[in-house]
Amino acid sequence: MIPAIRGTHDILPGEVERWQRAEDISRRLFERYGYAEVRTPIIEREELFAKGTGETTDIVQKEMYAFTDKGGERVTLRPEATPSLVRAFVEHALEQRMAAPKVYLFGPMFRYERPQKGRYRQFHQLDVEVFGMADPAIDAEVVDLAWALVAALGIVGAELVVNSVGCPACRPAFAAALVAALGADVSRLCRDCQRRAQTNPLRIFDCKVPADQPVIDALPHSLDFLCDGCRTHFAAVERHLGMYGIPYRVSHRLVRGLDYYTRTTFEILAGGIGAQNALLGGGRYDGLFRQLGGPDRTGIGFAAGLERLVLAMPEPRRSERRRPLFVAYMGEAARDAALALLRDLRRAELEAHMEYEGRSLKAQMKRADRLRAAFTLILGEEELAAGEVSVKDMATGGQRRVRREAVVEECRALVNGGRE
Ligand code: AMP
Question: Whole-prediction pTM value?
């Protein structure tokens, strides 16, 4: 058989339920905060990310699935969603069409990275963006939404880290200070860092090479170089986070791997999911619209990796587990009655299963067990004659007869009553 491509993965039954739960919970939460869903193509012009994500980023330099298509156009599988959402927002003049400029997207992203636990070449993100709102209260709202998302998924022990990377007015001084502080130490850093020191010194903070870390830890902090506007903005973001009671840590190392960030950056980290522990990351990107040739609009958002959220989520509580029903029958005469009952149960919005092969009752009960049925409804000649159905509680083994016309309602009560 031909295997799947390295770094991609299938999401199979048994696991897909956790994905569906994560998606359902996120979707409900985003809509409560006033976000509307947008779906964009997974293939875009390469230029969108070269200009948007940034020429000096690892993503653009090393990780894009870019190629020339049959028409001779340079295209790429999207490595992230923000530039696509900005493009769609401008291209369709959504500013005029939407009640609030807040959007979210779910979907696969592609980066040619070295695969490991929690890191794939095709992975899935949920992405949240707010356009054209510059007030620090919206920064805090976006962070609050990210924090609420992690809580709603039942993930405990997560840590929120925030920072400000300044703006084009104050960042050059910070970049110069980094280069000055590095001085001759540059030659001791990895080759990537040596390149970053020349092209984009802030990217040095992305370095994961253990030997480089002591040098990087000792570098100047962006917060010490903020201009008045950026300092006031960051203080207001902190004040709002305090007001919302969201615990956070300020880390000067959080500059994040993309070129477009300005002012606020943040990440939420999880314990117990391995080395790739960033559940989500985001920040403000006030220059991106202009960089892409659009109008002068601000932006802020975050992206979370669904693989990592799903990994960090706890097992569903008993009350959230499915409680299927199984319909078993004995003898040909009972088969039609069983089929009718199966259909009635499904019409009543209950999950119900049946086997058509006419195997022994024992074999049918085995199948019911495998399906983790909460109750099995048994129809035999006796039940048929009496106008009743035997209802077997699969957890206790107890069995009793219920009138056929009452059995659907009874099942609904049993299934829902079993949830605490
Ligand atoms: P980024 O778009 O790089 O800011 O990443 C945002 C989030 O996407 C991260 O916090 C991860 O949860 C997830 N992510 C990024 N790259 C990968 C990858 N290669 N595999 C799985 N998840 C990823």
Answer: 0.89
